[in-house]
Design brief:
alpha+beta, seven-stranded parallel beta sheet, seven-stranded antiparallel beta sheet, 10 helices, 24 strands, globular, binds ligand FHN
């Protein structure tokens, strides 16, 4: 390797490895560590993409990668490709389905943790060209997407439990190989990513995954892909960060500064690969709310389909995608090429903006009139994109919107507000539909915290910031979060926001009385956001006691609210 290259990598490594140095020497960061801003904007404007998890594993109806050595013995799993013959595969049909869904890009698993390559490669025989199908499905999809005006990107797993040089193997990467050679594996990874860009490019993005073994090596991937294609994007799972965050199975928090994309599954059971004919799909409302909340938070959605072993995106998945596309065909102006805000998303509202227009996405109507903090701009015109009429009342104290019940939509009523200035000039406005939380900024402790105890500290669950969270190690089940309110307070409502899906299976809300804990609410799952009401409680020390959990429960916010003052007659 040329000395200059080596120095560049050393610099990048030093910068990535030491935040202090990184902050002090940000200007010294090699140019290739940053993405092309125009490429980021193009990607953000797209807002909605298709994720595809596919491979010989679809023959088993089990999860890709994870079922190797678990539900399916390794020997059997690694020979599935000899039976993989997706004769009904038609790249143009998959691209057409994505387009009909309103998806502007596609990301295909070209190599998952199981090591099987869905592309022609000189680096291993374990690839689709040596299956009975003998076709480079990755290249065919890339070409079909180009024909249909859809951008194409490739998922490429950093961890590879099949490759003899990778230090971990199945089941689930829990088994350490006796001998391995990460340097040799790194050369293999770089060579294959080079093949993908060279043979299937230009690509929208490289979507790395599960990079736990690659800290300090990801910079080499970033440098190489930028040298091959300067406007390419790469996600944050390289081992050394990347261009955009990738919250998974959850909608990310509002963030205008750092691009992000939530990867979600259309499967009713959150399967990535095809889970069989009984798998089913999520309701249209759940899919649309993913898009609305993500766009409201300034993020993208990468919605995953799992094709069948015959090479079909099954009808129930294609039909759901078509329904999303039909909605976007009518209201996509409020999603595509917008930015999030100015009002930050809540359970009942999201907002997006473009030019001089703010789009209010009213997804629930707790009251007949929606009352918001005032907009620092004059509303010159309003309309209801979804049909009907709205009464919009703007004062220096508030913005009130009401839409007759007959004109409210089941999933999303969109009110467009034309302003007397660019909507992007407005600073983000946080909403507290339940009022300010009594826990915000208070002292919080927890039974356990993952990692260094700072990034995911207990305090991250009481900072009124949906981009931070209290997190626990993946092995954690039961755990608790305790908050000292500073003085006895009275409250009758709580809001709990869970990150990373539904890892909480049962919980209690408890107040400390002397040395005892008194339970005042019990529940099961929490999810993105749970709001609960209960008889007023007065206490200073309160805790969220997670009695049953799996996979490391993690909480974005734990909030408590004073009783709403009774309106005078
Ligand atoms: O283990 C993978 C999983 O199978 C899937 O590919 C997701 C998609 O983001 N990534 C990993 C889990 O984080």
């Amino acid at each position: 390797m040329k000395p200059t290259h080596f120095l560049k990598i050393l610099t990048a490594l030093a910068l990535v490895a030491s935040p202090g140095l990184r902050a002090a020497d940000a200007q010294a960061e090699p140019p290739w560590m940053k993405p092309d801003p125009a490429a980021v904007k193009r990607w953000q404007d797209m807002r909605f993409g298709m994720f595809i998890h596919w491979g010989p594993v679809s023959l088993t109806h089990q999860e890709i990668g994870w079922s190797r050595g678990a539900k399916t013995p390794i020997e059997e799993y690694d020979n599935l490709y000899k039976k993989f013959n997706p004769v009904k595969f038609n790249a143009d049909e998959w691209a057409r389905i994505a387009k009909a869904a309103g998806m502007k890009y596609m990301v295909l698993t070209t190599k998952h943790h199981d090591g099987f390559c869905l592309f022609e490669t000189k680096e291993t025989d374990y690839n689709v060209m040596n299956s009975p199908f003998h076709r480079d499905v990755t290249k065919e999809l890339a070409e079909a997407c180009r024909r249909q005006g859809i951008a194409f990107g490739t998922y490429y797993s950093v961890c590879d439990w099949h490759h003899p040089d990778f230090p971990l193997t199945s089941p689930g990467g829990k088994v350490k190989r006796e001998t391995s050679n990460l340097e040799s594996y790194n050369r293999y990874l770089l060579a294959q990513i080079r093949e993908l860009i060279t043979n299937c490019g230009p690509l929208l993005t490289i979507w790395n995954d599960v990079p736990q073994e690659f800290k300090g090596r990801g910079v080499k991937t970033i440098q190489m892909v930028r040298e091959l294609q300067p406007d390419i994007l790469i996600n944050n799972r390289t081992g050394d960060g990347g261009d955009y965050e990738t919250p998974e199975q959850r909608i990310g928090g509002f963030n205008l500064e750092r691009p992000w994309e939530s990867c979600m599954t259309v499967s009713a059971h959150n399967h990535w690969a095809w889970g069989g004919p009984e798998d089913g799909v999520k309701p249209l409302s759940a899919c649309l709310l993913m898009l609305i909340r993500a766009a409201g938070g300034d993020g993208n959605v990468l919605l995953n389909v799992g094709p069948t072993p015959e090479g079909l995106i099954e009808d129930c998945q294609a039909d759901r995608l078509k329904e999303i596309g039909d909605w976007l065909a009518k209201y996509g102006e409020s999603i595509y090429a917008t930015r999030g805000g100015p009002y930050k998303p809540t359970l009942s509202l999201a907002s997006t903006r473009k030019g001089n227009t703010v789009y209010l996405h009213l997804t629930q109507w707790p009251e007949d009139t929606v009352t918001l903090p005032p907009l620092p701009a004059k509303i010159t015109k309003s309309s209801v994109l979804t049909g009907g009429t709205a009464v919009v009342k703007q004062t220096s104290d508030a913005l009130e919107i009401s839409v007759p019940a007959s004109d409210r939509q089941e999933i999303d009523t969109i009110v467009a507000l034309e302003l007397d200035r660019p909507a992007l000039e407005i600073q983000p406005i946080a909403l507290h539909p339940l009022g300010p939380s009594l826990t915000t900024g208070k002292t919080a402790i927890a039974s356990t915290v993952i990692g260094n105890g700072k990034t995911y500290a207990a305090s991250m669950a009481v900072d009124d910031n949906d981009s931070t969270r209290w997190a626990t190690a993946a092995s954690t089940g039961a755990c608790w979060l305790e908050v000292d309110l500073g003085k006895p307070e009275t409250f009758d409502r709580a809001a709990i926001l869970e990150a990373c899906g539904e890892r909480v299976k049962a919980f209690e809300l408890q107040a400390k009385e002397g040395d005892d804990w008194k339970t005042f609410h019990q529940g099961k799952k929490i999810g993105d956001r749970l709001e609960v009401k209960f008889a007023p409680v007065t206490a200073q020390i309160v805790r969220l006691n997670i009695t049953e959990g799996q996979g490391g429960p993690t909480i974005t916010e734990f909030q408590l609210f004073s009783p709403v003052p009774k309106k005078s007659p």
